[in-house]
Write a structure and sequence with these properties.
Layout (H helix, E strand, L loop, with lengths): L8 E2 L21 E2 L6 E4 L2 E5 L5 E7 L7 E2 L1 H4 L4 E2 L11 E3 L7 E2 L12 E3 L6 E2 L12 E4 L5 E2 L23 E4 L4 H8 L3 E2 L7
Parallel strand pairs: 1-2, 5-7, 6-8, 8-10, 9-11, 10-12, 11-13, 12-14, 14-15
Antiparallel strand pairs: 3-4, 4-5
Length: 202
């Protein structure tokens, strides 16, 4: 963590566990060599945990040195989980999880992602935990296709008071693209975010 000039890392293939965002604060690092590990791989500057069959199962960390700010559906296809803080403090701007099998957006998953504009969740998501989208002031579009996706009250910053802590001020232009009868739409209405049920048909 915090190695500002780090450009290369090699991890022994015997390593079976990684802590939360182990390479945060390394803005020039875009690849970690796991030497053919059966536990982890790094593909296009994203560290994945592998299942017993060697398939990508969980996103561990989006490396800060990644050139592209867009995470495509093909990169998240079949993924079952995201680690806490996996995208925290990065320059990610767009993330498409529509073909994933994720059930939980964990705490602080996208915390302090100032460039984040759009996120597409899959039908499978059941819960969005506290501070998942904390300090994402430019978040403009959150697509939530599931009818029963439950957003915890602090999943997105909701403060409207001009004197409120800057870290909790709401993303003013955020639109929830979701079915008008869904739990996500109810959350949007509760906190006066814009709802767009028509966007689900685009």
């Amino acid at each position: 963590k915090g190695c500002e000039h780090l450009t290369s890392v090699t991890v022994p293939d015997t390593v079976q566990e990684l802590g939360l965002i182990p390479f945060t604060g390394c803005p020039d690092l875009d690849y970690v060599n796991f030497q053919g590990s059966e536990y982890f791989t790094c593909d296009n500057s994203i560290i994945y945990q592998l299942d017993s069959a060697g398939k990508k199962e969980k996103i561990i960390e989006y490396l800060e040195g990644r050139a592209s700010g867009s995470v495509t559906a093909s990169e998240t296809k079949g993924i079952k989980a995201i680690a806490e803080e996996a995208f925290k403090n990065t320059k990610v701007a767009f993330a498409d999880f529509s073909d994933s099998e994720i059930e939980v957006i964990p705490e602080r998953a996208f915390q302090n992602c100032e460039k984040l504009i759009q996120v597409i969740l899959p039908n499978s998501v059941k819960t969005v935990l506290p501070e998942a989208f904390n300090m994402c002031p430019n978040l403009m579009r959150l697509t939530v296709p599931g009818m029963y996706t439950n957003f915890r009250s602090t999943a997105v910053d909701t403060a409207t008071d001009p004197d409120a802590d800057p870290e909790t001020k709401r993303p003013e232009n955020l639109v929830f693209v979701t079915n008008e009868d869904s739990l996500a739409a109810e959350y949007a209405r509760t906190y006066d975010f814009i709802g767009d049920p028509n966007g689900m048909n685009i």
